[in-house]
Design a protein that fits this description.
Elements lengths: L28 H4 L7 E6 L26 H8 L4 E7 L6 H11 L4 E6 L8 H9 L4 E5 L8 H4 L5 H10 L3 E3 L5 H13 L4 E4 L11 H14 L5 E4 L5 E3 L2 E3 L2 H15 L4 E2 L13 H12 L4 H16 L6 H4 L2
Helix pairs in contact: 7-8, 9-10
């Protein structure tokens, strides 16, 4: 799996930001909770069990930040103080059998409202697997993009790929992307045009690799503007934190211009909250990540915050509540 370089600086200069660059120590849960925390649905976490027989495809054993079991009990203990009452588990494995493993974990843990699995459109077993997995209401769709040595830009032209996406749309399931860069965004635009009934989620758009060349940068933003015309396309305002000079930047003002550009482009009805836990631990503790998000969202109306934290994920994923707290979102 080609992982993001999570320690890289975002593609913007400090001089263009809305406020001064501020370095601070990682926040504790207690310090981050000194203000109101509205209830939330985390639309992006990863689950895996490094202790299971045979291990896992990701993370690697050398990844000391991540290589330990990441399971619902641990996530619940970490996230509950921040008002998180549910989560969507996004695949962290290309193994076909791990779709069933992830569903099995979700079924016994009501905090997980659904899972986004891994399928390859056009593959020999695709239709069978899609129909089989779709029988479980916790299966919300699958993810495909710049990971697991795949390339959406090339692969969408393979026989059966677009036909598979049309079958996904007919099943009313979601297509999710991964690791956005200009080529991926352009590929998603082509899919958006050719499969107009498909719901699409773009992961971690604030962390996208934006070109520095002016003409390429303009082409990238032109594609984003065209994507924004699709009412079935949603973006995750996630993977926001940045490390500079070995220090985590915790001031929301540092990120405001970048996030505002995406928020204003796609609108408050199509932006989603996701923590990217535990992959986010590479950059920031959970409390610090949530602090940045909450400080930014605090500038929005309560209605916009409610959409970002939960309601928009219902529209994107069509998940169903499993607990009273989730039903109240």
């Amino acid at each position: 799996m080609r992982r993001r370089d999570v320690l890289k600086l975002a593609a913007f200069s400090a001089g263009s930001l809305a406020g001064p660059l501020s370095h601070a120590s990682p926040l504790s849960a207690e310090s981050a909770m000194n203000h109101s925390t509205p209830p939330k649905l985390d639309a992006h976490i990863h689950l895996f069990d490094t202790a299971r027989p045979g291990g896992v495809p990701w993370p690697e054993q050398t990844d000391t930040a991540l290589y330990k079991p990441a399971l619902p009990d641990r996530y619940t203990a970490l996230s509950a103080p921040f008002g998180i009452v549910g989560a969507i588990a996004v695949e962290a494995s290309p193994l076909a059998s791990d779709n069933d493993w992830l569903l099995g974990v979700a079924e016994t843990n009501p905090i997980i409202v659904g899972i986004v699995g891994d399928l390859i459109p056009g593959s020999e077993t695709y239709r069978y697997q899609l129909e089989r997995l779709h029988e479980n209401p916790l299966f919300l769709g699958y993810r495909y993009g710049n990971l697991w040595s795949r390339d959406l830009s090339t692969d969408l032209n393979k026989p059966g790929f677009l036909a598979g996406l049309k079958e996904l749309a007919q099943a009313n399931l979601v297509f999710e992307s991964a690791n956005p860069d200009p080529r991926l965004i352009h590929a998603l635009l082509e899919i958006s045009d050719r499969v107009p009934g498909l719901r699409i989620v773009v992961d971690h758009l604030p962390n996208a690799q934006v070109p520095t060349d002016q003409s390429a940068k303009q082409a990238y933003w032109d594609d984003l503007h065209r994507l924004a015309q699709n009412p079935r396309l949603f973006v995750k305002i996630s993977e926001i934190p940045v490390v500079a000079d070995g220090k985590l930047i915790t001031a929301a003002a540092f990120y405001r211009d970048r996030v505002d550009a995406l928020w204003n482009l796609f609108g408050e009805d199509r932006v989603l909250f996701g923590s990217d836990w535990p992959n986010s631990d590479h950059v920031a503790p959970f409390a610090a990540t949530l602090h940045i998000v909450e400080e930014y969202i605090a500038q929005k109306t309560p209605q916009a915050a409610a959409k970002y934290y939960a309601k928009n994920s219902m529209a994107a994923y069509k998940w169903h509540a499993r607990t009273p707290a989730q039903a109240a979102l």
